[in-house]
Amino acid sequence: MTSQARPLGKPRWLKRRLPSHPNFALVRRLLGKYGLHTVCQEAKCPNQWECFSKQTATFLIMGSRCTRDCRFCAIEHGSPLPPEPSEPERVAKAAAAMGLAYVVVTSVTRDDLSDGGASFFAETIRQIRHTLPEARVEVLIPDLQGDWTALESILEAGPDVLNHNLETVPRLYGLARPQADYRRSLELLRQAGEQHPGLPTKSGLMLGLGESDQEIEEVLKDLLAADCRILTLGQYLQPGPQQLQVERFLEPETFEAWRLKGLDLGFAEVASGPFVRSSYKAQELYAQT
Q1: Rounded distance, CA 27 to CA 53, Å?
Q2: Are 80 and 37 in contact, with CB atoms under 8 Å apart?
Q3: Closest of 170, 178, 172 to residue 248, by C-alpha
Q4: What distance in Å separates the CA atoms of residue 160 and residue 183, rounded to the nearest whole number?
Q5: Was domain 20-288 assigned CATH 3.10.290.10?
Q6: pTM of this prediction?
């Protein structure tokens, strides 16, 4: 991987007008009312204006400080505060106030907790089920440090989709995800499918960090071998000066080619585009699957 002295200038297809809608302010007020975080805000997601305007968001549980320091992510890292026992119920109430039919929940990585925060994921799922019994629930979880008993506790709570992102190709893990392990993440997805056959599993990659096309294809084949059937591919965008620079901007046509390639390889559904993120239009992707 090379390093640019100056960041690459954004191409035209990554420039768009921000949507303006009263729902944007409404969602922010509701999040403030219930004292909740979203990955949309903490990770500086480029889609937050669009998603908030459509009155949806991805809830970020167990605080806003991560125990890991991935070099692509804008979320603050360090020693987090203890999780708040009332948070699962507040997530469910906020989801109900927003009128969500599909709820996406993720978290910071909590390596400081004995179960990696699995019990909080499970309780959040249960609270959403209680408050919104007709809603679908997707969870985007960390690797739990390979604790498959903790994983089982999440699965027993009954999510509709289990998502865990590989993020990048194995060669770049030391640079982008030094505290993660590629094989461990693959095994998590395989374990989820083995423990609960029929549960849709999902994963995603950021492109533009210096990976080759051959490396991307090898990762897609690894995911299929781990029984992952839903795939998201998006453009990596540098969220701040402290994070890794973009090595390449892929054209929309290239993302479309990867979407078709993924389907040809055997994925049930693939979302691929410059602004695609793991939870972007998750309800539509689930419905298509």
Answers
A1: 8
A2: no
A3: 172
A4: 24
A5: no
A6: 0.91
